[in-house]
Amino acid sequence: MRFPLLFSPLAIRGAELRNRIFTTGHDTGLVRDNRPTEALAAYHRARARGGAGLIILQAAGVHDTARFSDHVLMAHDDTCIPHFRRLAAALHDDGARVFVQLHHPGREMMNRLHGVQRSTIAPSHSPSERNRTVPRVMDRPLIAEIIAAYAAAARRMAEAGLDGVELVASHGYLPAQFLSARLNQRDDDYGGSFDNRLRFVAETLDQIRAAVPDGFVVGMRHSGDEHDDAGIDGDESLAIARALSPRLDFLNMIAGTSASSSGAMHIVPSMATEHAYVAPLAQRVREATGIPVFVAGRINQPHEAELILERGQADLCGMTRATIADPDMPNKALAGETDHIRACVGCNQACIGHIQHGLSVSCIQHPETGRELELGQRRRAARPLKVMVVGGGPAGLKAAAVAAERGHHVTLHEKQRYLGGQVRLAQLLPDRAEFGGIVTNLAREAEHHGAVLKRSSPVTRELLEAERPDAVILATGSLPVLPPVEGETERLMLAADVLRHSARPGHNVVIYDWRADWVGMGLALKLAKEGHQVRLAVNGTCAGDALPHSIRDEFNARLHRLGVQVLPWMRLYGMDHRTAYFNHTAAREAVMLEEVDSLVAVYANRQEDSLKADLDAMAIPVRLAGDCLAPRTVEEAVCEGMRAALAL
Questions:
Q1: 368 Rama sector, left if φ>0, alpha if ψ -120 to 50, beta otherwise
Q2: What are the helix (H) ranges across 174-226?
Q3: What's the rounded Cα separation, in Å, for the pair 282 and 607?
């Protein structure tokens, strides 16, 4: 066996796990009326069937004051029991053990409930910097009520047939607020000294243990370092873990806090973060406590998890995004089929990015994620067709893979020597090389299912006449264009040309970032690192306005450290000699930027669908997917490529 430690069983109290892979508690957007749904069950069953040893269900609120969003699970009354019972039974049937997170956010209320901001609670007066909430200070009767609510919720989960619970004391939520010397300023026996700050969590764990059967697992999620100047650091975290460990069956180590921008980056770390970077923190806790320790944080591949176990850094590895990208990753690793694993690239676009927009979880590479009820079973074609896919970017590759999997005879034509389309440009940005893995994954998937991939193969009308396909999926992408600019434009260049090194900017560079996404920020970082003086003029409220906020904040921090000047609300309208002219889109006033050696434009692409006219004239059925339909992102390209193939 290639991964002997990863696929060894682990007994924790009354639960035996078939392997050392687990999915961490994470929001899915698949909850309705605060209860588990069929869609949520189908989502988790895909990962249980794919081989995960443990599924930790997302945060379940223990008290009415814990309703931090419209789609939070609630475990605060007995009516939830049958709903959780059905979900647990389904996952048990697929061989996985099931825990659930018990949660109270305290002051960290992230969403409005039905449009209204709810009141929040905390141990002390401690306004939340990131979520802009001012909590009500908890009195002793409320503290007792919340502790009892945790215990009652645990009892319900045991009655529902789950295998354990995880107290969420991580990421700056209510238990962590009691633990923090900076936030907890109480002068009674729930604050002040280290032992007093532990009291809320200790009493909660004691009451949970008293409320559940002896074989029921009770653990805690804990941030090994909150990465915040006002947060719990590594030494404090270790002391807390050591003190509470006698009450726990496991500790689940993570990093970060919801309370600040610097801490929130670590809740779902991006591809700019080192793989398995929390493992050293977990190792310290494991050596200090002697109890089973779980760890998560950018553990994307089975060999990374095996190495963590081999080094003795943890007992169980959280591989949540790895299974969002490929639910069958554990089974593929067990079978030695690692080359067929669809590796997560850490883009955060459709997983946490969807959740932040109030949407259900998915994956830009695997749109089936979060849509298991609709797309979980691939239907074979009633009649195999001769299918031509034009374009070897993400849309075309996904279309070829899915069409071939359904039994069609598929040939993909890419006019360039290389596959990937604009992904090949995106991977040239700083810390975005991993993004190129999308092309590797999709090409392998297409070839595995029997699609023929032809490079340096432009499609012309003559080729169409010769091949006479039954259907064509057009995925020819889009082309970069310059924005409309008045005046002199000899200093104006495309971002794509700068990335390809076919255009070389001067020392003083202004980047006009119409898209407010990865490209403008990444190009600013690249040029600043190369020694250019960079101003980033963004057609948005901030750099990265269109990105998930954790990534946006991380890259803004890096721009700040490199001295890049960011100018928001900018719309380019003119240029002469070394001056660029902008409108401030909110104030409707002119802004002049002088001493500009080069103006680099990150602007809206134009769709490239010129072949459609020939296809229509020849009466060949055609479906458009991705940027040739309308320029957007890789997520839309892959999803539309899949749907075009499913429609054949």
A1: alpha
A2: 174-179, 194-211
A3: 48
Span 24-52, pLDDT tens digits: 999 999 999 999 999 999 999 999 999 99
Percent of the chain that is helix, strand, coil (3-state, to 5) = 35, 20, 45
Exposed/middle/buried for residue 457 (C-beta within 10 Å: 0-12, 13-18, 19+)? middle
Give the contacts of 313 (CB within 8 A, at least 6 positions apart).
Answer: 279, 280, 282, 283, 286, 295
Joined tokens for residue 490: 């000899």
Strand 533-538 vs strand 565-567: parallel, antiparallel, or unpaired?
parallel
Query: What type of residue sits at position 455?
Result: R
Left if phi > 0, otherwise alpha if psi is -120 to 50, otherwise beta: which for 314?
Answer: beta
Helix, strand or coil for residue 36? Answer: coil
pLDDT of residue 452: 98
Q: Which long-range contacts (CB under 8 A, 24 or more apart) does 554-558 make?
A: 554/265, 554/270, 554/272, 555/272, 555/521, 555/522, 555/525, 556/521, 557/261, 557/262, 557/265, 558/525
Q: Are 250 and 291 in contact (CB under 8 A)?
A: yes
Q: List pLDDT tens digits, range 66-82.
A: 998 878 999 999 999 99
Cα 384 from Cα 403, distance rounded (Å): 9
- Average pLDDT score over residue span 511-540: 97
Rounded Cα gap, residues 445 and 82, in angstroms? 40
Q: pLDDT tens digits, residue range 339-380? A: 999 999 999 999 999 988 889 999 999 999 999 999 988 889
Q: 318 near 24, Cβ under 8 Å? A: yes
- Cα separation, 256 vs 518, in Å, equals 23
Q: What is the DSSP string of 589-618?
A: EEEEE-S-SEEEEE---EE--THHHHHHHT
pLDDT of residue 129: 87
Count, residues in the chain: 648
Tokens of 118: 């709810």
Taking the CA atoms of residue 430, residue 434, residue 435 and residue 440 in that order, the dihedral angle to the nearest 10 degrees is 140
**Cα 560 from Cα 557, distance rounded (Å):** 5
Nearest CA to 358 out of 28, 23, 25 is that of 28
Q: What is the mean pLDDT of residues 136-156?
A: 98
pTM of the complete model beyond 0.85: yes
Task: Specify the pLDDT at position 515.
Answer: 96
